[in-house]
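During the second year of the project, the team shifted from modelling isolated chains to modelling whole assemblies. The rationale, set out in the original proposal, was that interfaces cannot be judged from single-chain predictions alone. As a representative example for this report, we include one of the complexes processed in the last quarter. Its constituent sequences, exactly as entered into the pipeline, are reproduced here:
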Amino acid sequence: MATSVIGQTDIAAPAHAASKTGLWSWLTTVDHKRIGILYGASAFIFFLWGGIEALLIRIQLARPENNFLTPDQYNQLFTMHGTTMIFLAVMPLSAMYFNFFVPLQIGARDVVFPRLNAFSFWVFLLGGLFLNSSFLMGAAPNGGWFGYANLSSRQYSPGLNMDFWVLGLQILGIASLAAGVNFFVTILNMRAPGMKLMRMPMFTWATFITQLLVLLSFPVITVALFMLTFDRFVGTSFFSVAGGGDPMLWQHLFWVFGHPEVYILILPSFGIVSEILPVFSRKPLFGYAAMVFATAFIAFLGFGVWSHHMFSTGMGPLADSFFSLATMLIAIPTGVKIFNWIGTMAGGSLQFKTPMLFAIGFVAMFIFGGLSGVMHSSPPADLQQTDSYFVVAHFHYVLFGGSIFALTAGAYYWWPKMFGKMLNETLGKVHFWLMLLSFNITFFPMHLVGLNGQPRRTYWYPKGLGFDLLNLIETIGSLALAVSILVFGVNIIKTWLEDQPEPPADPWGGATLEWTIPSPPDEWNFAKVPQVIARDDVWEKKRLEGAAWTPEGRTDGKGIHLPNPSYWPLVCAIGLTLTFVGLMLSRGPVGPWGIVAGMSLTVLSIFKWAFEPAH
Amino acid sequence: MALRLRASSARLTRWMPMVLLVLLAACGTAEQYPQSTLFPKGDFARMVDGVFRTTLLWATVVFVLVEGALLWVLFRYRGKPNDPLPKQTHGNTTAEIIWTIVPALILAFIAVPTIRTIFRTYEVPKGDALVVEVIGHQWWWEFRYPQYGLVTAGELHVPVGRTVSLRMNTQDVLHSFWVPQFAAKRDVFPNRNTTLWFKTEATGNYPGACAEFCGIQHARMKFRVRSDTPAEFDAFIGTLQASAGATAIPSPVATAAPGGMQTASAGGTVAEDSVAMPAAAPVDPIVAQGKTLFLKKGCIGCHSLDATKTMGMGPNLAGIGSRSYIVAGTLENTDANLALWVSKPQDVKQGALMNVPPISESEAKALVAYLRTHK
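Output from the structure prediction step:
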């Protein structure tokens, strides 16, 4: 059990006197809360950009035989929409929350490796910029977010497009792996005294299991991307038939990563919702232990179902049967989670504040997406559904109706803690109802049009197949969806500009440790490391102490020891990215020098980082 | 529809099909959606549809019950800010066991027909099935009839009521052959054959599509399935057989042997006078001009007019005059469309691998007139 560890021992040294404001303080920060905000801000901008890509796609598809986009522009946009939303929006938005709140929920002063945490963020940001800089060259990736071989080979994708993709994802993978190690170890080792595993808040549990998925699945995509990089740059033939390779190998490797990735995208959202529903039902989470085991079981099964993305490849009846049954099994722990969420609300006193509305929206939409998922766990049925708009509908119900609703719920719930201001409730409710309605207008018709034969990833569809009206409805819905995001933006800006009194430490009556400290928290989080006595610790202490219980007040932080700011994580991330830029240009005269410069910078910064005084 | 439900309660079997009918009615009709998966016209699609309906049925039941429970809870337990703290329950083991076991039982109702059907989807038809080799190309489909030694492209003719056995692969990248009305879909690979089978129940002309993203013109990689009466099918085969020798490039003469295909080289000098006309009738001067252009503009480098030969690069054009669609099933086969396509292929299908030298309007007309004689 974690008790006293690095960064938590109170020794007689002053709180670090580094500058607390200004650009430099953000570039050198190792504070998990600031890194969380950096993740959130960058990811939100990428989310908006991915949304604009989606709108362009929808405008092109509003009418049959439309010429708004060229075929190649369309292919670039749908590839980048998927890649952006998965790697640059939903994953880092989850990272925002687990950066900011996991240390708070476990009663720690920071993560176990603060500089590695900063490094993860900078690598993520530079990787995202690297990937998107392809638009400036008119050569954004155009082979789909799944990059199927052998279309991704140099022979069939000769341009820079897929170079950006393969190298960009590799950079982003480094960020995810570094964060994965960091949070896995943090949750294991940095818990406050008394914070036993089975007392951890559900969001911390979800993050813990998510990081385990990252650690086990990202190495697979890393290897696959290296193989593809070798195929494209060196002329090996892992996936090329002419050289004895097999394009099917790519599909297996990609989905061995890709299916756990789906749970990497949704499990943190499960965690967020499991935090919010009890608070606004004023009643503990129903079946906590079952929820933990269900999450773990989903993650475990997630490694045994990858081939359900490949039912149409003709793997043979035994393989199809195995992967079909394994996939159906996942419905059981997922069902347990849904029933337990409903059980949490049953018997409660439901307070329909904005975070609660989004959390309920999540449950309602996730039920829908989960059930359409069960429908294509059946390979014969999936033979019609795969690669059609039915699948597009399904995963948007899970990723948007699921993840985005939950992440938005988290924003309204945790905003006062992060920024010391409450988001506007009225605008929040407008945001919710508009988003719920327009989300369904956009994505529900995709089920119908998919079952009626519209293939996905097509810039063009002819008149006469009956797709016209449904596609137009989807486009109108997507514009309304954009308006709902705009309402959220207005809410953020309004809240930012207005003067508000500092909200109480605990505006919602929360159960977890982040609500015991001021909003926003001081740099050192906890003036005194908390002693945890129960699951839902705050509620238990309130029950025992009654009115006598008060949250921690502001302190001057004297004598609390914090890690030094450092710019080496940023320099190291720049060196690493430069190496990849050089690799991409390696067929030209500049490239090799880029690799040399980038690697030198990386090695230098690792050296300086290692010998930098940590405190 | 309710075939899979014998084991479940009789009441459920009675009212659920009604719900499904209402749901499916909302999805339209076969005429509105000619490429739909919901109106199967072949045995394979019908079998797959049965599994789909079973899953849809159970998904609908679960959806209604669970969303209903959610809404009821939201209404029943709505609270006011000053309400006293509700009873602090932490769970209920009995309830949790029930809602673990019940979904498992429901899944069994889906799993059993699923597994049974999986094995049927992999069967390879025996007997007098019509064998068709399906070959994907960026961005069109080639169909070979090894039993007849013939090849065609863009339109797959099958005789109604006869089982068709597909053996599929690709010349380049992965594609997926999708003909929703008859046979669902199967991906194609460059290094292995995949299979599919179906038997059509109705005659007609049906659209199909490539379902696996395959590059810039994936969207326009479509095809037609022509489900013919036996007489129509024989006539179609006859047309292709009559095209033998139509592209007599000075090279060894191809013989159309059943089961064997010859790949003629696209190289070699092309002599104008060696192109055999399919008809012995007096030659219209515009057709003669088109024939000359077909050689001079290099069309013949990629396109054979002889269905007994394959020429590697482009679709075989034997019988193109009687096709309903051109450009991989995406453009109606009218004179104007064909003229546009042969002269400005990149305007019609940007990124297509067909590139042509400058062709004037009158030259295009002549080419169309010549191609129209091949039917």
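Residues 304 and 316 of chain B are 5 Å apart (CA to CA). The two ends of chain B are 43 Å apart (CA to CA).
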